[in-house]
Amino acid sequence: MRVALLSLMSCGSCAENLELACRRTGHELAWSSLTDDGEVPDVDVLFVEGAVDFEDAEAQERLERAVTSADTVVTLGSCAATGGFARHAIGMREPARYHFTVFPAAKFAGTDYAIPGCPPTEDAIAAFLRALEEGDEDRLEPYRVLSGDFHGLAPDLPAPVRGPELEVEDVLLTSNKDLCLGCDLDVIERDLFCVGCGTCAAACPARAIELDEKPEVRQERCIRCGTCFVVCPRSFRP
Amino acid sequence: MRGLLRKVLGRSRRDGGEELDPELVGPYRSAYLARATDERVREAGQDGGVTTALLTHALEEGLVEAAIVATTGSDPWKPEPTVVTSPEELLEAAGSKYAISPNVSLLEEAVSAHESVALVGTPCQVTAVRKAERYAHGVADVAERVRLLVGIFCSENLEYENLQRLLREELGVDPSRVERMDITAGKFTVVTEDGEERTVPVSRLSRYANEACHFCADLTAEDADVSVGSTGAPDGWNVVLTRTDRGEEILQSAVDAGRLETREVSEGDPKVLERLARDKRERVRDSRCATWRPYHPSGP
Lengths: 238, 300
Fold this sequence. Notes:
heterodimer; A: Rossmann fold; Alpha-Beta Plaits; 2 domains; 5-stranded parallel β-sheet; two-stranded antiparallel sheet; 10 helices; 9 strands; 34% helix; B: alpha/beta; Aspartate Aminotransferase, domain 2; Nuclear Transport Factor 2, Chain: A; 8-stranded mixed β-sheet; 3-stranded antiparallel β-sheet; 11 helices; 11 strands; 21% strand; globular
């Protein structure tokens, strides 16, 4: 498959792992905004990494144009898929999620699949590429769920982006994609959904979760990738 | 009259030789009564010692290198997740503990250190591992390396603090003085170090239970390879449900190796198990949390 990468507001780690995964699985990384200028050529798969500032019209247009040149669009990494570091912690602002102007790229463009993670490992990306190449619907299903409205948990969610602000009420347990890591667990814990299984702690790439029966997030280590929320057996089920 | 009752209540005679209703206990391959043949294992275990015997078999035959189980830590009756690699450690960890043990928290550690791993967990923990298999970007290699998921029947679990409260308030006993805890025949029973037995009806437990358990529909760990519990089994035996090819194979090989003995599940009381499984499914409907929905696909 011919692969392209559009890198937006991000650190570039996802791009690096994508490159390694493409090399390993024998797919051609035909174009990358990190090294190539101009428009995205026609490709089979476009990966988008990073978030977009609501006030950055140029980036939004670039994204809108880019998604038209690929058959399949995949958000790569938490910044693009669910907000992640770029949305929830850039500039080391207080992670008060409802007044940010930065949104995951997925909010500005239609996407087919999402691979969250901070960053998704080379293995994870390679596994996705294999599933996509083989058209294995069963294995693609989780990535599809993550790119959508979270398994119908947000059926009444308003248009993807209404403005630079989201009401807190709108995001809690309705649009989980907007919740940062710490907040998510907080919701699950405080609203009494937590069964104390420990999956969040096992999955946390930053080892930010301490567990004594129930999880506790060490905010100073949290990278807000949302992995804990995705794996939680009580957040949603595929 | 009895015939009529049977007709009305249904299911007391089922065609096709199905011993338990899969609508209630989830899909399964086979159902047995089973117990460990090794008396030491039965002694250390809660009922028939099946979980310990099955894992011992898996470790000794090299089917898995390690198992994630709940052992007891420094506080009396407070479970602690641990990764074990030997039958001796398993024996140490045998028996039920009635408080939250976040076994899945060791999943990453276990699968990165070992090629093949078994996990024992409550129904929700088993579901969590299944989800981690599909959402593979969280913990790597779960699908490849977790070779056996043993689910324990669970009506509800307790936070340790609330277990302590339950023991003190309802049973008037300090946790450190408790020698044995058990749930049988609708009663939560503790035996103190002086051999005194105290009981409280299981219905009293729900006020101490972990909140999330009130909207759980899964009594029998429907996502497990093998589910094990005592509900519906005679004293000293377990009900065992195999749910996957892998689960059935491991159980059969443990029977063939003489580590487990089995009987027909109908020799126990399958109706009790079905009733409790139904109760738990229906409890979700009465959940005080109206916004949440049962997450288990086969739930009500």
